[in-house]
Every structure is written in structure tokens, then in C-alpha cells.
């Protein structure tokens, strides 16, 4: 199964709104780009051509962190969600997050990364975006969020189109694997982690089944997509400093691997050691799957050492030889100009057959990422209120500022750091995509357009009777009409700016529920 992002139909010059439409589509049966062979990551078709994964982490998109926004009081997704809902109300907060997610990272980002010479993206996942925190049953089937799937579906389509690999990274799993803000743990900002907040380890009966089910759903949904390189099972788990039985990590990894292997036999299992992905001794022997990869993290970037990592006696390169499996530096970077260490590190990694993923693709007010997103004065006002207190912004102003900032996270509003990208050898910041975009066979509608009056133009491929329905993000009906034919213009009703779910059900052709973003 594959998914297609449908292009808008030709609209008159008066168009002032834009839409993002996702629909189900048929696609060819495929296998992923890469797998492992001994100590190498290789092209899956030939099993011989060596591939060094060279890419970037897309942090801050699905799981924003406090330091990325400049917020100290609120430093993780669940706290941001609460704070924004408190400012503008739950319904408007839902709309903000939709706008943020659909603007912060787009197909243009994928295409740009491919043009620079990257071959993979590490996608940090926020479990609650797909599998909500609340009202979950005690056993499967668990509840899932359609909007979260639509975001991942779109990413897969973009990466298929531009031949870009995806490594899913379970950054914020159900329950939290480290009790920190980076895993969206329950707790307050700027507090030391405690064992009770890393409930993935302290309530295994609840959170292990949910984590396994989430990984299975992801692997099963995209099992026929070429772009899925593998699965970074947990990001930076902590156990020893939380007083947790360290044997649980290897046990969970084996169970997660077995779960994913039900639908994907060749995808790479990227396994991180505990204590910030540096201590792998508790995972030995690394022999439970034929396609494991040691995924370690190191800040500052590595430049001379292929043995012991900083603060650890465990030798990654010795383990690579011992277990005949590859190495991948899944996180590194955070270096400002002149970026000399970036160039030295990538030269070292490339020459030692170690894949790498730089952190991070885009941040606010940053000098260590390819893209720097300036914060608006209104967004700064909100951040200042959160950090320092004072007069609470009124809801109308806060909504205007938040929505404006969400729209301004697209590349067209951000500053591109040519020197930073050039420092990651062999990337070329002036490069262009050298592969032809893959075509995806479309099904359902041909396209949509919102005109100046706020009406919705729809064109179907066949003459038929159909029903058009618009819902708000709470699932409440906003508009519904029945029609016959091939085209319809839903006019005479002003649709305010916002985010809607569009449904089109016809006799011969139907459209899966689709996100409609309408800008003023």
C-alpha cells in the first residue's frame, strides 16, 4: 500500500488559500533501499554495493524540545500542548499543531536534503501523535490518531518520490525510556529524572504492549514502501541511573525486533545503548537478529577515535568486528561556525565506514543547523510570558501569533546556512536532485482548490453521485452537501481560515479523510 499527495487543480489568480490533500493510492510492491551485510550497510538489490548512511535528524518537527523553542518552563511536547491549550483553547490548539506539523517539514525539505547529497532522514517520533496518551484500554486494540498517520503517510510519499531513506526513531515512546524531557516524560521542566517517570521500565505490563503494538502498526503500514531503511528502536534509554534492572533493555529490544519481523524481514534494527546511547555492554551478545546495527551518539562530533566513546569503556569498533555488524552515529553535531569539527568528523566517519545522522535539520534562532527559523515578535512574547510570567496574552493575540509562527517555519521564511551544510562532507549545499521523482498512481479525486470567496472546488475522475463533508478537528460537522456529476463548487458559504477534515464519498470513487489547511 502507498499514499499519494494530490496536486491542486489549476485555480484562478484570485486564489488566496492553500490546501494539502492526502489520499490513498495504489503503488507497486517494493523492498527497502538498504539492509546489512556483515559490517556493511548495503544496497538491498545487489547486496554488494556499500552505502554509508549520510543524513540528518528531523528533530523539533513531531517532538519539539524546550531548547529549540527557547522555552525553559515548558520543555517537552506534553507541556507545550498544555500551555498552548491554556492560551487559546483546545480546538484552536489542535489547529495550531496541524499548521505547525504541515509547515515545519515539507516535501521541499526532503527534496533539498536529497539535492545536498543525503541518502536518509532520521525521523524522531512522538508516540502520542499516533497513539494518544489518554483513554487507552488495558490491552489491544489500542486507540490511534488518524491525523498522526496522515503526517507519516505524507512523509513516506515524499521520500518515495525523491528516493530518500527513512529511519524511524522512537524518540518519545509510550511511558518514556529515560524520564527526560526529550522522551516527553511525565513531569515538570528542569527537574531531575526519577525512576517513576520512566514508566516504560517501571510499568512494563502497561507500556511494553503499547510500544510493541505501535512499532508493529508502523512497520505493517509501510512494509511495502521502498524508503523504509529501518527502526531506531529507542532513543537514548536510561536505566542504571534510574535504578532500573539493566537486563530489561536487551529483553525489550528482542521483543520489539520479533514484533517488527512479523512484517519486515530485512529492515535494519538500529539499537542504542543505555546512558545516552553510549553503553552497549548490557546488550551483549549482539546476536539476536541478522540485521542489527550499533547506533551510538556522540557530542562533540567524533574526529579521531573509533574505539572507546567519551565517558564509556565500551569499544564500538571492537564490537563491530566481534559481532560482524555495522556502526551508525545516529546523533552528533550542535556545533556553531566555523564548523571545522564537522568537516573533520565527517571525513573520519566516511573513511571508517560509519554512517552518520547530524542533529538537527531545522531549529529556531540556530547557528548549527541547515535551516534557521527566526522567531516572530509575537512568538517571542509568548515564550517570554512562559519563561518569566507577567501579563497573560489574550487568546485572540496569542492565536494570531502562534498561527503566524507555525506558518513561518517553512523554508521560504527560514535562513539557509550554506557553510554549515558544506562542512558535512561530501554534501553540496548548491546541489540539485539528481534522481527523477517517482510517479505515484493516483486514485480518487484529481484535485482541490479554495477560491477567494472561501468555496471549495472539487473535480472527480468519473461522473457519479457523491457526498462532500467538512469536519472540524473535533469531528463535528461543519458542512455537508450531496451532488451528482464530476465537478462541484461548494459556494455560498464562507469557510473561515483553519484546518478541516474533508471527506468525499462517491458511487465509484471515494477519498480517505484528508487534511484541508485553509489560510486567510
Brief description of this entry?
This protein is of the alpha/beta class and 520 residues long.
Keywords:
single chain, alpha/beta, Immunoglobulin-like, TIM Barrel, 2 domains, eight-stranded parallel β-barrel, five-stranded antiparallel sheet, 15 helices, 29% helix
Describe this structure in words.
The chain is α/β, with parallel strands linked by helices and 520 residues long. It has 2 domains: 2-25 and 442-518, Sandwich (Immunoglobulin-like), CATH 2.60.40; 36-61 and 106-374 and 414-422, Alpha-Beta Barrel (TIM Barrel), CATH 3.20.20. 29% of the residues lie in helices and 24% in strands. It contains 15 helices and 20 strands. It has helices at 66-69, 77-88, 90-104, 107-116, 127-130, 146-161, 199-202, 204-221, 247-260, 274-277, 316-323, 340-351, 377-388, 395-407, 418-422; strands at 2-6, 21-25, 34-37, 40-43, 54-57, 120-126, 165-172, 228-232, 268-271, 292-297, 327-333, 354-359, 362-364, 371-373, 415-416, 447-450, 456-471, 477-490, 498-506, 510-518. It has an 8-stranded parallel beta barrel with strand order 5-6-7-8-9-10-11-12, surrounded by 4 helices. Strands 16, 17, 18, 19 and 20 form a 5-stranded antiparallel beta sheet that branches. Helix 13 (377-388) packs across helix 14. The longest helix is centred in the middle third of the chain and has 18 residues, at 204-221. The protein is globular and about 65 Å long. It starts with a strand and ends with a strand.
